[in-house]
Amino acid sequence: MADQVHELVIIGAGPAALSAAIYTCREDIDTLLIEKGAIGGLAAVTDWVDNYPGFEDGLEGLKLSESMRKQAERFGAKIDLNEVTKLSKEGDLIVLDTLTGPIKTKAVLIATGSEYRKIGVPGEEEFYGRGVHYCATCDGAFYRDKKLVVVGGGNSAVQEGLFLTKFATHIDMLVRSTIRASDILQKELAENKKITVHLNTSTDEIVGKDGKVTKVIGTHNGKKVEYQTDGVFVFVGLDPNTKFLAGSDVELDERGFVKSDSRLMTNVPGIFVAGDVRSGATLQIASATGEGATAALMIREYLEDHAKISKAKVVSLYGT
Amino acid sequence: MVKNITIFTTNTCTYCGMVKRFLDIKGLKYEVVNLEENPERQAEALSVSGALTVPITVVTKTDDSQQVVIGYNLSQLAPAVV
Fold this sequence. Notes:
The structure holds 2 protein chains of 2 kinds. Chain A is an alpha/beta fold. Chain A folds into 2 domains: 5-116 and 238-318, FAD/NAD(P)-binding domain (3-Layer(bba) Sandwich), CATH 3.50.50; 132-234, 3-Layer(bba) Sandwich (FAD/NAD(P)-binding domain), CATH 3.50.50. Helices cover 27% and strands 29% of the residues of chain A. Chain A has helices at residues 15-26, 41-44, 61-74, 136-139, 155-164, 183-191, 285-318; strands at 5-11, 31-35, 78-81, 84-90, 93-98, 101-110, 114-116, 132-133, 147-151, 170-174, 195-198, 201-209, 212-220, 223-228, 231-234, 238-240, 271-273. In chain A, helix 6 links the parallel strand 10 (170-174) and strand 11 (195-198). Chain B is of the alpha+beta class. Chain B has one domain (2-80): 3-Layer(aba) Sandwich (Glutaredoxin), CATH 3.40.30. Helices cover 34% and strands 28% of the residues of chain B. Chain B is globular, with a radius of gyration of 12 Å. The A-B interface holds A 36-40, 44-45, 47, 61-62, 65, 81-83, 99-100, 128-130, 133, 135, 137-142, 211 and B 10-18, 21-22, 25, 35-36, 42, 46, 49-55, 70, 72, 74-75, 78.
């Protein structure tokens, strides 16, 4: 294992990664994916996907992810449930430190996506799992016939808030400024009688008693407000999964997303990036799969060019 | 060594599926407790982990010591099932 050198390792197994793997595996490029979280990424924990082309009635995020996984594996993609902790270069090769030891490869595609951001208020960490949650499809079921607060005003907050109405009797949605979700989601939100939207309302503190959340304190138009609740679901944006790149030469932008050129290559030759983790990405499943396919074609060119360079070096050393 | 493994889950929990997949790859057997279908066991899940969230994986070793992993966390789960 230690001596094996892969042609391509894809860090991540979300939509960008699986799309890339379909392309590279069909070209017989040895492809290993390493995923520390859910196969399918955030798409796999999304209740419903209505805007991915080809599914006229929409479908569950998990079903879409499973379909992508099966397609990639049909062409020979191997998915290792593992975590990359560090990335470095060793000559022309890239070395990935993982939980089970180092992996060497000629090319890397960083497709690690993003994770849900925390609000960063008192009580949030204290009550994590005991009233504070970040995954509606995981934990929504615990709040049947209960009251909830959803924090956030983007597509995720609205989509997952609508999902949570399957369980909760009422939801107070706290939106720091205005709703930024798509028009179709906003229409569904307006028609749902179980959700009360509170605009221009910040979330300042999560309060509990006897180890359980009891209320959320916020500020609305300069005045303190309180919402009694049994639980809080947080959807306030996404942070890139790039901590493992600390100490590497891969350039990140000011928010921690990976920079790339028009070939989706980073500043380090042989290291490519696609999907939500890429600086400038549009954070949609459809764009992630498109970037994955594009990156795969660029990687194929890179590997072909490098094989020619390596062959030329051998010829120049040893003659024809 | 592992004596038994219990995973607390809900019906639409993707991360619960990942725990099962990881344990299947390792060839390990486990009991699944669906907390939606067995709400009477929610207190047990809360008591053993201090949290009411899923997945919760309880690994009991042959010496009867227990290791509890909250969520899908490979850096904790992998060494717990060795």
